[in-house]
Write a structure and sequence with these properties.
Elements (H helix, E strand, L loop, with lengths): L18 H21 L1 H15 L5 E5 L1 H18 L6 E5 L17 H10 L7 E5 L6 H12 L3 E6 L5 H5 L2 E4 L14 H20 L16 H15 L3 H10 L4 H10 L2
Helix pairs in contact: 1-7, 2-7, 3-7, 4-5, 8-9, 8-10, 9-10
């Protein structure tokens, strides 16, 4: 039995404990998830280095998973656009069960390996692409088949799983083991396993974007200022980086059609 499915016998009376005691147990599990991510930092670093080298000007990020793992991948993927101006055309999210599974569970879809392979091949993967494969168990047929198809097409594969010895880790060039162990509620991998996957993806994608030059002086210089809050943040970034006034920053942003990077260069060019 996989570690993520095994019951912790010390918690047999969990539902009979006080609410605060249950919360303490749940929080302890969340802390363990971050310990698991810390142990995986060398693997994450290696995966980012390989991904940055592969992507170039055309490579895509392809996220693939089922259930909770797939939706965690979706969360990371959709934030890359507004945060780092990563083009929508250069990211894909493959979730078992298709788009209908984004907001509604379709648990049986994860068992369809043929669908995983077909979904991955439909993206027409190339050696420039980086495929992020997520499965808490590490043996989900949909994700495993997709990983094998991606690797067969020459794409770089990064596998995130929470069980040691998981087939997904063997199927991917860059395995990332997030060993969270048994869940407080046996088998509920939306808890510690899910938290570890989310944190690991946060680290992976943020370091990747830094490596690709999308962060300058600790700031999101490729951020899309698409609402009032983000426009104010863009102005602040330009003024903080260049030392100009808010009025100068606003003028530069207007001239650059909202591009923070171009606004910074424009201000510095006249100084």
């Amino acid at each position: 039995m996989e570690e993520t499915e095994r019951a912790d016998e010390a918690l047999r009376d969990l539902e009979r404990r006080s609410p605060r005691a249950v919360l303490d147990v749940l929080l302890a599990g969340q802390r363990r998830s971050l310990d698991a991510v810390e142990a995986a930092l060398p693997a994450i670093e290696r995966a980012v280095a390989a991904a940055a080298e592969r992507l170039g000007e055309r490579g895509r990020l392809i996220y693939c998973g089922a259930g909770t793992s797939g939706r965690i991948g979706l969360l990371d993927a959709v934030e890359l656009g507004p945060t780092f101006d990563w083009p929508d055309a250069r990211r894909h999210v493959l979730l078992a069960g298709g788009e209908a599974s984004f907001g509604r569970t379709r648990e049986g879809a994860e068992d369809d390996g043929a669908a995983g392979r077909a979904a991955l091949l439909a993206t027409e993967p190339t050696p420039a692409d980086v495929c992020l494969m997520l499965a808490a168990s590490g043996r989900t047929p949909f994700t495993l088949a997709a990983a094998e198809a991606a690797r067969g097409a020459g794409a770089l594969t990064v596998g995130l799983a929470n069980n040691p010895g998981a087939p997904l880790l063997d199927a991917c060039q860059h395995p990332i083991l997030l060993r969270t162990g048994p869940e407080a509620v046996a088998g509920s991998t939306r808890l510690a396993a899910g938290t570890a996957q989310k944190a690991a993806l946060n680290l992976f994608s943020t370091l990747l974007m830094i490596r690709l030059g999308k962060v300058f002086r600790g700031r999101m210089v490729d951020m899309r200022p698409t609402n009032a809050k983000l426009r104010a943040r863009a102005c602040r970034i330009v003024s903080e980086v260049t030392g100009c006034s808010d009025d100068e920053a606003l003028a530069a942003l207007r001239s650059s059609r909202g591009s923070i990077r171009e606004a910074i260069l424009a201000v510095e060019a006249v100084r």
